[in-house]
Write a structure and sequence with these properties.
The chain is of the alpha/beta class and 344 residues long. The chain is built from eleven helices and 15 strands. It is globular, with a radius of gyration of 19 Å. The structure holds 5-S-methyl-1-O-phosphono-5-thio-D-ribulose (MRU).
Length: 344
């Protein structure tokens, strides 16, 4: 099989058409390939909230395109009005806030008559930067791995979550290309099943040997098989290097520490939030409990059941072996080292 990145594939997961944004509807993967067309910023915000598109860097890229759509009439007030609508779409992924701050600054930096053109160019550039960050992180990250590693990952931090080859999955893909990765164990990632539906799909499409496990198999696997590294992405990294990522990541980090397994976080600088001092201050998205008590519309819990649905958790930086950014590797993971690397 020819080895290729998802963004080189005929199925484009996000495509900017100048007057609209076409996104692959990730809710349907891998069962069907459907697309959603967004012509307004409000439609981009809804697609983001509804999980048509997801993954912190892709959420940021889509928001940048949403701002470009809002600028189509060359009116600054349209862009200013769209910004809070997009900002409310998902609370945890700070890439969203980063993209909106950037696009608002671009909007205000020139004459109104050129607004549409400038915003479209800035959104395309924002996307291309993320693509480049993915490639840089993949190389830096793969260099940290031993030859023939068995690795575990969580959620989907792959091509579907970014503009390029992914963050954690990008490192895994590069590791596989260079003989560092032998086998991948993606956790299924309840309740949204991003690991089972999306990461496994990406890995199988790329021909990377992978075996799916349920979330509660991770400890057993670490104890009984040789797991050489856990590699995950992030939605927000606080100033002290605490890492927020998909619910279940914290548990994996504790397990990795107990079993002496390195725990790597791969995330671009756009995921770092120096304005949030530590992880406990990161807003944790709580989603509908329907997503917990039902699977694909079928009830799995008794009628009237109470449930929690926390979308994310925070891993204290002391449990993180290294944070791989496009600017360099932060190790040990702490605030001082994070700032040093970001200033590179
Ligand atoms: O709720 P999701 O699917 O948007 O959550 C995604 C994750 O938690 C990813 O690990 C994170 O965004 C990093 S994606 C490169």
């Amino acid at each position: 099989m020819k080895k290729r990145a998802l963004h080189e594939d005929p199925i484009k997961h996000i495509a900017w058409k100048g007057d609209r944004l076409v996104v692959l509807d990730q809710r349907w993967l891998p069962r069907s390939v459907k697309f959603v067309t967004c012509k307004t910023a409000t439609q981009v915000a809804k697609a983001t909230t509804d999980m048509v598109l997801r993954g912190a860097p892709l959420i940021g890229c889509a928001a940048a395109y949403g701002m470009a759509l809002a600028a189509r009439r060359n009116k600054l007030k349209d862009v200013v009005a769209a910004e809070p609508v997009l900002r409310r779409a998902r609370p945890t992924a700070v890439n969203l806030m980063h993209a909106l701050d950037h696009m608002l600054a671009v909007a205000k930096s020139g004459p109104e008559k050129t607004l549409s053109r400038r915003m479209a160019a800035a959104a395309v550039q924002y996307f291309e930067h993320d693509l480049g960050y993915n490639a840089a992180m993949a190389k830096l990250g793969a260099a940290l791995l031993k030859k023939n590693s068995n690795v575990m990952t969580h959620c989907n931090a792959g091509a579907l979550a970014t503009a390029g080859i992914g963050t954690a999955v990008g490192m895994i893909r590069q590791g596989w290309l260079t003989g560092k990765v032998k086998h991948v164990y993606p956790c299924e990632t309840r309740p949204y099943l991003q690991g089972a539906r999306l990461t496994l799909w990406e890995l199988m499409e790329a021909g990377i040997p992978a075996t799916l496990i349920t979330d509660n198999m991770a400890a057993h696997l670490m104890k009984t098989r040789k797991i050489d590294a856990v590699i995950v992405g992030s939605d927000r990294i606080a100033a002290n290097a605490d890492v927020c990522n998909k619910i279940g990541t914290y548990g994996l980090a504790i397990l990795a520490k107990h079993h002496g397994i390195p725990f790597y976080v791969v995330a671009p600088s756009t995921t770092v939030d120096l304005g949030t001092a530590h992880g406990d201050r990161i807003p944790i998205e709580e989603r509908s409990i329907q997503e917990v008590v039902e699977i694909f519309g079928s009830k799995i819990a008794p009628k009237g059941a109470k449930a929690h649905h926390f979308g994310f958790d925070v891993t204290p930086h002391a449990l993180v072996t290294a944070i791989v950014t496009e600017k360099g590797v932060v190790s040990p993971a702490n605030g001082a080292n994070l700032r040093k690397v970001l200033n590179n």
